[in-house]
Design goal:
The chain is α+β, with helices and mostly antiparallel strands and 508 residues long. The chain has twelve helices and 24 strands.
Length: 508
C-alpha cells in the first residue's frame, strides 16, 4: 500500500501531523519571516503585442534588435513606462504616432541604469488607449553576471555556442532561456509571469542555419545568396519568459498531430535516432488532450536539442529546448530514454503556458502539474505499477530535501525566485496532486482541471483559483486540504513498531 493512495489512513495521519509538528511549523515561520515578502508584480502597464527584429552577431556575441511593443495602462492613467532591459545598449526610444494619416516616430526622453529603462511618454494614456513604442537596442549577454541556481545554472538569457567556430567538436548555435526573468536580457519587456503578449520575431541569419521559435514560421525571404530572414508569429498570448529563439544547423525530422507540426530538431549525426527519442510525442499530445478534455491549445509543437543548455529542458511555447542528453543512440536509449522530461515539458503547455502562475510564489501551478504529468503518462502508457514506482521516487527526493528544511508549496518569502525551483515545487507538489486525485476521485479530478484550465486560459492564476475550481465541481469546501498541503510545511511522520513470538511463545 502507498501512503498517498489510501484516504482513511491519510486523514488519521493529517491529524497526527497537525498535533505533532507544531514546533517544526514555528521554526519555518521564523525562518520565512526573515526573508523578503514577494508580492505579485504590480500591473501598471500591460503588454499587448511584442515585435522583435533581430540580427544576431556571432562574432561579437551580441544581438542588435528593434523592439516594437504595444501596451495599455492596466487601470490607472499613465504618462510613463518602466521596462526591464538588462545590460543592453539602448540607442533610441520612440513612440509611434499618427500625423495626417501617416505613422511617424517621435523621440522620447528616457533614463537607463543597465537594468530598468524608464521612459517618459508623450502624453497621459487612459486604460482604453493603447500606445506603441520602438526601441533600438543591442543585447549584450556576455555582460550579464554569470550566476544561477541548481535548476537554472545561468541567467544570460541569450547564449552563443561556439560562436567563432573554433571548437571542431561542437556546432555553432544560438539559443535563449527566459525563465525566470532573463527574457529581458535579450529584449526589453515587462519581465514578470503575470504579463502576457502576442509575439512576432523576424530574425536575420546565415542561410545555412535553421531558426525555431514560438508560433508558426509564415514567411522566409532571401536577402542574398547567404543571408535569410525568417518571420515567426505567435498569435496567442503567452508570458515573456516563454519567448524563444534557436538558431543552428539542425536536421529537421517531421511529425504531426491532428494536422499540426510536431518536429524534432537534432544534430545531423543523430537524425536517425530522433523518432526513437521523440516518437511518442504525438501519442502524448493525444493522451493529454483527452484526459484534460481540452485539445492541445497551441499552433505547433517543436522540440530542439542544443549544446550547453543551462537546465534539463524548457517549456517555451511550442518551442521546447532540451539539453543534449536527449541526443543519443539506440544503446544509450536503453539506459535512459528521458521520456519523463518529454512528458514534463509537454504537460507544461497546459499548466504553465496556457495558464501561468501569476507569481513565482505560485510556481507549483506550473511545476507540480508538469511533474504529475510524468505520472499520468507512465500510468497510461506503462501501467500503474510503473507509475507508482516513479511516485515512490517523488517521495524519496522530496523527503530527502525536507529533512534539511521543510517548506510550504506556496511561498511568499524567499531570497531569489530560483529558490522556488526545488523538490517541494516539483516532487512534493506532484505527490499532493495525486493525493487530491485519490480524495475526490478521477472523474471529479479531471473535470476540475478542465474547469481550471478553461476559466483561466491565456491568463494567470494563483493556487486559490485551483481550489475554487475543485470546490465548484465537487461542491465541497476544500480549504482544509489546501491549507494543509499547499500553505503548510512538512509531511506525515510515522513511527512503526512491531514484535512477534516464535514457536515457543517467546517475544522477539
Amino acid at each position: 500500500m502507498k501512503l498517498l493512495h489510501l484516504i482513511t489512513p491519510l486523514i488519521v495521519v493529517i491529524f497526527f501531523t497537525a498535533c505533532k509538528s507544531k514546533q517544526n511549523t514555528e521554526v519555518v515561520e521564523i525562518s520565512e519571516a526573515m526573508k523578503i515578502y514577494r508580492a505579485t508584480v504590480p500591473q501598471i502597464n500591460d503588454l499587448v503585442h511584442t515585435k522583435l527584429e533581430l540580427k544576431p552577431d556571432f562574432i561579437n556575441q551580441e544581438m542588435p534588435g528593434v523592439a516594437t511593443i504595444t501596451l495599455k495602462p492596466h487601470f490607472y492613467a499613465v504618462d510613463s513606462l518602466i521596462l526591464d532591459a538588462k545590460y543592453m545598449r539602448i540607442e533610441s526610444v520612440q513612440i509611434i504616432d499618427t500625423v495626417g494619416g501617416k505613422e511617424v516616430n517621435k523621440d522620447l526622453k528616457y533614463n537607463y541604469d543597465s537594468l530598468k529603462l524608464r521612459i517618459a511618454l508623450d502624453k497621459r494614456y487612459t486604460r482604453d488607449q493603447s500606445y506603441t513604442i520602438n526601441i533600438n537596442y543591442v543585447s549584450q549577454p556576455e555582460r550579464v553576471p554569470s550566476d544561477g541556481s541548481a535548476a537554472i545554472t545561468d541567467r544570460k538569457g541569450l547564449y552563443f555556442i561556439n560562436h567563432d567556430n573554433t571548437d571542431l567538436d561542437k556546432p555553432v548555435q544560438l539559443w535563449t532561456q527566459g525563465e525566470t526573468e532573463a527574457a529581458s536580457c535579450w529584449f526589453p519587456t515587462l519581465d514578470a509571469p503575470n504579463q502576457k503578449s502576442t509575439e512576432e520575431i523576424q530574425v536575420q541569419v546565415p542561410s545555412k542555419y535553421k531558426t525555431i521559435s514560438n508560433g508558426v514560421l509564415y514567411k522566409s525571404e532571401m536577402l542574398n545568396a547567404s543571408v535569410r530572414i525568417d518571420f515567426w508569429k505567435q498569435e496567442k498570448a503567452h508570458a515573456p519568459y516563454l519567448f524563444a529563439l534557436v538558431v543552428g544547423d539542425f536536421a529537421e525530422v517531421k511529425d504531426t498531430w491532428n494536422g499540426k507540426q510536431v518536429n524534432y530538431y537534432v544534430e545531423h549525426s543523430y537524425e536517425k535516432y530522433a523518432h526513437l527519442v521523440f516518437g511518442n510525442t504525438p501519442e502524448m499530445i493525444e493522451f493529454y488532450s483527452n484526459v484534460l478534455m481540452l485539445p492541445y491549445p497551441w499552433d505547433k509543437y517543436h522540440q530542439v536539442v542544443v549544446r550547453d543548455f543551462v537546465s534539463g529542458a524548457m517549456e517555451n511555447t511550442g518551442c521546447v529546448v532540451h539539453f543534449d542528453k536527449l541526443q543519443h543512440d539506440n544503446r544509450e536509449h536503453l539506459d535512459n530514454p528521458f521520456e519523463d522530461i518529454i512528458a514534463h515539458e509537454l504537460f507544461h503547455h497546459w499548466f504553465g503556458d496556457l495558464v501561468t502562475c501569476e507569481s513565482w510564489s505560485n510556481l507549483p501551478l506550473n511545476e507540480s502539474f508538469a511533474t504529475y504529468g510524468e505520472y499520468l503518462w507512465n500510468e497510461y502508457k506503462y501501467g500503474r505499477d510503473e507509475a507508482d514506482y516513479k511516485l515512490k521516487e517523488f517521495h524519496e527526493k522530496y523527503i530527502d530535501e525536507a529533512n534539511e528544511e521543510p517548506k510550504t508549496l506556496v511561498r511568499y518569502h524567499y531570497e531569489a525566485q530560483e529558490d522556488m525551483f526545488d523538490r517541494h515545487s516539483y516532487q512534493k507538489g506532484g505527490s499532493v496532486l495525486h493525493m487530491l486525485r485519490k480524495y475526490v476521485g478521477d472523474e471529479a479530478f479531471f473535470l476540475s482541471l478542465n474547469k481550471y484550465l478553461k476559466d483561466n486560459a491565456y491568463k494567470t492564476a494563483e493556487v486559490s483559483d485551483l481550489r475554487k475550481a475543485f470546490e465548484s465541481v465537487t461542491g465541497e469546501d476544500l480549504n482544509w486540504f489546501f491549507d494543509q498541503w499547499f500553505y503548510s510545511a512538512s509531511h506525515p511522520k510515522l513511527k512503526v513498531e512491531h514484535n512477534y513470538s516464535d514457536a515457543n511463545g517467546y517475544m522477539r
